[in-house]
Amino acid sequence: MEIKDIQKLLDFIAHSSLDEVNIETGEFKVSVKRNAVTTVVTTAAPAPVVAAPAPVAAAPAPVAVATSAPKADESKYLTIKSPMIGTFYRSAGPDKPSFVEVGDEVSTGKVVCIVEAMKLFNEIESEVSGRIVKVLVENATPVEYDQPLFLVEPA
């Protein structure tokens, strides 16, 4: 089982009513509990056990406070969303510049941020072309699957 398969499993559990899933084959064993804090993957080979915090949250993501601008203004913008659950980072490191800033032009395939999931740093690429008009998430904060990260004015 690869990391992508585990991430898909966690996404499925997060959007279902299941509280616990156990999968066991000759090669590995995966046990995921919604109310527990750990996810354990064990392989048949003498590999170390990998323990990571379960990224499934019982509470919904925080909702942004409405501003005085009408909602219709934001409807013309495209949204770059998180493809996974994890921790959002605007740059590759604390001493590195942000991948994108408000006002920057982005094109399809340009890295706009990193989402850390299970100790893996996943570069998130833009699926749209345009200009960044708003960053919707604070640096180093948790994000949910399909959570909006950036608003982009289409090119």
Describe this protein's structure.
With 155 residues, this protein is mainly beta. The chain has two domains: 3-53, no CATH class; 71-154, RNA polymerase II/Efflux pump adaptor protein, barrel-sandwich hybrid domain (OB fold (Dihydrolipoamide Acetyltransferase, E2P), Beta Barrel), CATH 2.40.50. Helix content is 8%, strand content 39%. The chain is built from one helix and twelve strands. It has one helix spanning 3-14, and strands at 20-24, 28-33, 38-43, 50-53, 78-81, 86-89, 105-106, 111-117, 120-125, 130-135, 141-143, 148-154. The protein has a four-stranded antiparallel beta sheet with strand order 1-2-3-4, with no helix packed on it. It has a four-stranded antiparallel beta sheet with strand order 5-12-10-7, with no helix packed on it. Strands 9-8-6-11 form a four-stranded antiparallel beta sheet, with no helix packed on it. Strand 8 (111-117) and strand 9 (120-125) form a beta hairpin. The radius of gyration is 18 Å and the shape is elongated. The N and C termini lie far apart (39 Å).
